[in-house]
Structure formats: structure tokens, C-alpha cells
Amino acid sequence: MIYDKASFAVRHAASKEVDRYALQGIRFEKDKTVATDRRVLAIIDAVPADVAEGLPEAVTPTFKEPFTIESGDSARIASMIPKLRFKRNLEVVTVQQGKDDTKVTFTSTNLSAVDKTEVRKLEGMFPDHVAIIPKGKPEATRRIGLGVMLKAMAVLKDSGVESFHLNIFPLVVAKNGNITDGQISMEATRQDGRKVYVLVMPLRDVGK
Questions:
Q1: CB atoms < 10 A from the CB of 89, how many?
Q2: Phi, psi of 96 (to 5 degrees)
Q3: How many Å apart are CA 96 and CA 70, to the nearest integer?
Q4: pTM for this entry
Q5: Do residues 106 and 58 make contact, with C-beta atoms less than 8 angstroms apart?
Q6: What pLDDT sits at residue 178?
Q7: How far apart are the C-alpha atoms of 208 and 200, rounded to whole Å?
Q8: Spans in the chain with pLDDT lower than 70
Q9: Would you say residue 205 lies in a domain?
Q10: How many Cβ atoms are within 10 Å of 63's Cβ, its own excluded?
């Protein structure tokens, strides 16, 4: 019910296919935002509810039920979020749901003024994203620096490949107890048969 700019980052996972209308939006739930195109699922926790205790009454959230809005509206709503150097708890938007079940209001404030934007809800059934989240413990875990992974993705993208194989190599524990290796490689073959290979080194705490 309280969201910041990070909450809207899930929009990158929303579908752009016109025949998947319900998947073209961002799902707002009380404790998170969600988006998926059935290939990529993105979930980001909402701002903790206790932040509401320090918000002015004009932006008090009233959340009744989950809803979906078009991802195209998300940029406009995110732009409402003020940048306040000494009031970081106000760098949010809150949701107000009234009697009109077809619309929802997003509200923000910079203390001197209140900004409100009314958005129409997106119709259609949003998929049960909880059902597709893998259960149990993953077979392997690596912690990779974001900048490193973006660099690797740029290589793959600009090389002209459309998919790649992701390989996770075993961890090796040295005699001094340090964890080494555990690299991740990405391999692909272009349509002309040329191979593309990218190796990514995990951070030192590769098993965490």
C-alpha cells in the first residue's frame, strides 16, 4: 500500500504482447508489486507498513484489495514521488481505493503540496504468480555483482544471439577454508555457427 520508485522496476517484466492484456500491467498487492510475461517474473517488496505512521493524513493509504494497472501508467506515477533530502520516508506514493472499483488513486506529498493521480484498473485475470515460484532449495547459488552481469549480458546481446546456455560450476574449498571457483559461464551459438562464450566470476562469498 506504500510504494517507492524501486517498486515500479517490475514493469520491465510486463508483457508487451497485445493479446496478453492482463499481463501488460503491474500488479499491486498490499506487501509487494508483481509483473510477468510468463517468461520472466519480477516481485519487489513494498515499503514497510510502519512508514505510514510518519506520513501526513492527506496521504494515508486505504488499501482494499490487489489490483493491476497498465505498465505505461507506472512512469507517470513514479514521477510523482518527490526527492526530499531530509525526509526520505516521504519519497513514496500511497494508494487510496474508494467506492469506484474501476479506478485507484495514487497520492504523494512534498509537505508543501499533495499530488494525486487517478488511474483506471486493468481488467482481466492476473496469473497466480505464487504457484510458479519454485519450492524447495535451489541446486546452486552464486552472488554476482550487478555491473558484472550487465556487462556479460551486453556481450551476449550485441553478439546477435537470441538465447544461451547458463552453466554453474562447482565450488572448490581451499585448504585454508576459502571458497574459490564456482564460476558461471554463458555459451551460445550464432545463426552463422560462430560460438560466443562469456565467463563470470562470482563475488568472494559465492555460496551466500
A1: 15
A2: -125, 120
A3: 17
A4: 0.86
A5: no
A6: 66
A7: 16
A8: 85-86, 177-180, 204-208
A9: no
A10: 19
